[in-house]
Amino acid sequence: MPANAKTGVASGKRKRKCQSVVIPEQQQIFRGLVFFFFPNNDVSPLRRLRIQRAQDYGASWERTWGNNVTHVIVDKGLTFQDVLKHLGQETFPASIALVNESYPSECVKFRSVLSAMQSRFRVNGMAAPKAKETSPVDEPSSTASLAVKPARKEQRHQTPSESSGSQHAEELPEQEIGKSAKETEAARETGRERDALDDMIEEAKAVNHLPLEPFDSHDEDTTAEVSENEASDTSESRHAEKKRRVLDKEDKAADAWQQKFTCMQKHDSKSNADNPNNRTIAVLQQMLDYYSRTDDHWRTIAYRKAISALRRQSKKIATRSQALAIPGIGQRLADKIEEIVFTNRLRRLENANATPEDHILQLFLGVYGAGITQASRWLAQGYKSLEDLRAKAPLSQQQRVGVDHYYDFSQRIPRREVEAHGTIVRTAVQKADPEMQVIIGGSYRRGASDSGDVDLVITKPGAKIEYIRTMMIETVVPGLFRQGFLQASLANTSLRDGSKWHGASKLPGGRLWRRIDLLFVPDAEIGAALIYFTGNDIFNRSMRLLASKKGMRLNQRGLYTDVLRGPQRANLGAGRLVEGHDERRIFEILGVPWRPPEHRIC
């Protein structure tokens, strides 16, 4: 699954492979056949198993639609129209077999390539095949007696009949099947639709030459295949029970796969405080912060994964071998974990801040509006302090505010003060329009005792982004400047995903400037926006990754399905909006238990 190009697995995490089984060449029933799966990837563990088993038995997996495809295998829940829409065709080629996901395992079970025309292999929404018109056939006599069932020993020595061509049904010698088989063949040519009896007769013909001994054990171990005993029972109740058991196994497998995602678990301040790996996590978090400031993308991802993995452990991880046993932790991080546990320090972290140049770089990275590139440039130009920047460096308006109020912006904001900022903005907003709403987001909404800045989500029931943005920029923001609450405008952006106003504010009678972000969100997107602007970052990444694994896309505007992706997971189409307004509904669609904001502290 999270990702390596074609299959969409997440970057840095290896996808668990199904164990391949060596099948003798004479038993490779799919040799020469080319399968095209729909969806045509191995992201799903169950589909990956089906693909692997088909390849074990000689089939080729074709990743690109073409004339060489012989069979299209369609997942349950998808319809015939879905296939046509995906392939961009009005009709499906008659030369290619279109079957549901049970077809490969059924063929393997009976050691024969079964007819794709059987009704149990029919894809939802696919029209039933019409019988060919032939010359009239006399109806069988109602008094005709049924043939006596051959003895079990005779069945073992029966030989399959040869096909008589595409226009006639396959026939067995009369002494083996008896008169009733011919009567059934005649009934099948009268123009009626195929039924379950036709399928059973055809299946019996296809496998009557096979031995009755049990099948190989490796087939019985797979979740996609059913047992021999179930196959021998043709009653409806046994078939329904078999289907329920297979579906239960699939549901359990899917549930186990999804449970590994961080967003599936409850994360709050208490559970984090009780974690036996707290000290290790705290030191690794400092390294993560360092790599985030220095824009080291890959190390940032590695540390996030390691911290997330340690938070899930119920026992203290002390040694290198214990750390290596945890998925998501490599050799270098395992060495660092052992060093932290046994020495209560990490030399790499100490070295990161050891030289004067490192100290200066960290100082410059704290200036609002300065990233790693700008901070490194100032360092290379010989600046060594904030006074040097203020006196000598050419600064933008935002950078000058960042330098002048460096101390203010570096201070954490107590929860009560965040509430006070929110109250002032809410009063001004509802004075302009009583129906408009102000929601405090970020770490405040997660229940934190303090925050780095003030995030305020502005919305209105039924309103679009244009109305909210106009009301805020032309009425509310100028009014807050006039009353002395807002002190500076740092960024005013109007993007495709909404609008933001970034600035600085100060409480009446206060002396510290605080960073404040006003986020304008239309009502149709408020649910997705609350997820995005609540965080935390690890929880949001987990939600987005889970959506991606399910063929969807989640961002601050909504949850989308039918998303088309190209090489390296590039978006080729926005997809269809499923939900954007209801925060809880997005959780429900993704199959994630509702996590209130205070349980998203990952």
From TrEMBL:
Its EC number is 2.7.7.7. It is an enzyme of class 2 (transferase). One of its GO terms (cellular component) is nucleus. InterPro entries: BRCT_dom, BRCT_dom_sf, DNA-dir_DNA_pol_X, DNA_pol-X_BS, DNA_pol_B_palm_palm, DNA_pol_lambd_fingers_domain, DNA_pol_lamdba_lyase_dom_sf, DNA_Pol_thumb_sf. It catalyses: DNA(n) + a 2'-deoxyribonucleoside 5'-triphosphate = DNA(n+1) + diphosphate. It is found in: Nucleus. PANTHER family: DNA POLYMERASE LAMBDA (PTHR11276:SF28), DNA POLYMERASE TYPE-X FAMILY MEMBER (PTHR11276). DNA polymerase that functions in several pathways of DNA repair. Involved in base excision repair (BER) responsible for repair of lesions that give rise to abasic (AP) sites in DNA. Also contributes to DNA double-strand break repair by non-homologous end joining and homologous recombination. Has both template-dependent and template-independent (terminal transferase) DNA polymerase activities. Has also a 5'-deoxyribose-5-phosphate lyase (dRP lyase) activity. This is DNA polymerase.
